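Run log, item B.
One chain of 421 residues. Sequence copied directly from the ordering sheet:
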Amino acid sequence: MTDDLREQVHAAARRARVAADQLVLATREQKDAALHEMAAALRTRAPEVLEANAKDLEAGAAAGLNRGLLDRLELTEARIDGVAAGLETVAGLADPVGEVLRGSILPNGLELRQVRVPMGVVGMVYEARPNVTVDAAGLALKSGNAALLRGSSSAEHSNTALVAILRDALENAGLPADAVQLLPCHDRASVTHLITARGLVDLVIPRGGAGLIDAVVRQATVPAIETGVGNVHVYVDASADLDMAQRVVLNSKTRRTSVCNSAESLLVHADVADEFLPRVITALKAADVTIHGDERFARDPRVEPATDEDWDTEYLSLDIAARVVDSIDDAIAHIAAHGSGHTEAIVTSDLAAARRFTTRVDAAAVMVNASTAFTDGAEFGMGAEIGISTQKLHARGPMGLAELTSSKWVVWGEGHVRGTS
């Protein structure tokens, strides 16, 4: 059975390679037309997607998935329209393929150009977020890549319906359907076969919980990009406008708890603690947030005492860890010890404090007086995103079209030969 599954995954990768070779020749006009075709098909066939999604939601509830995971899994007409609009946005973006990154003419007359090229075959391993299926397919297509999608079994019906629609749209637009393929999801071995398919797959991107990402990054022999774990902090500085701070904290925590840019920890400078703690605790409790606080926070009976584990937890729920710090340096040290390199925010009126925080905090995105919810490819003007990289090589932060390309050097000569010296 394992050998059969391995061949099934590798056969899909070989078909993807053929499709990728065809996409290299596709013009921007062809790719954009296909993206619009995909968006229109999603809207027209939304009832099919919602019917499939209802089966996944029913099975997820029966399996005991928590509210945050069910929210990630759920599709609505508005969410389908949103991912379709994301495809249209991507169609309106510049095509990265062929962009000249550097160029020069050497003294000997050789003309050098470093140009963007597609990665080739990109594998995605992700959990119960069927919107990722569409985002990944659209971004891969526009950047000239074929996508191998390995979603979770909890979204099997939704992903199957979505990929069928996307493949039909690609064929209608005259591009290869095998540019988007869905891999088997019931056996974890399919992930292993994907991430070790060196020579067949050019890049793997895991998107999901810490366990999934760590397993893929550690086991992959295909190059992998680490994405998405978000132990995100909001630090309220001594000089903060407390009305602004309360808005930023609430939006960062409660806008949508199941996403990786949701705040999981709150740090408050001791100088404003007496005034800010009662009001932020009241506001968070009114939003049904459970607060896991240090000794200062836990003096309020509405706050649960924090454990050491809380500082390192990505809750993805209506929970937040909270601590009072004596200085901005204490806040920065706490973030360095417990952060995941995703997004960190400071609320301050002190320019020097803002500069100190943005310079010293090591994260893919650092916010000043803004909600952590803005760490998002669409909000950054990238259209959809394929993930948020928390590593430092090749790509960091929201990954859009440019991050799905590599580059190559094109050298033009006129019979140039190199001397022996």
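Observations after the first pass:
- The chain is about 40% helix and 20% strand.
- Residues 21 and 113 are 22 Å apart (CA to CA).
Flagged for discussion on Thursday.
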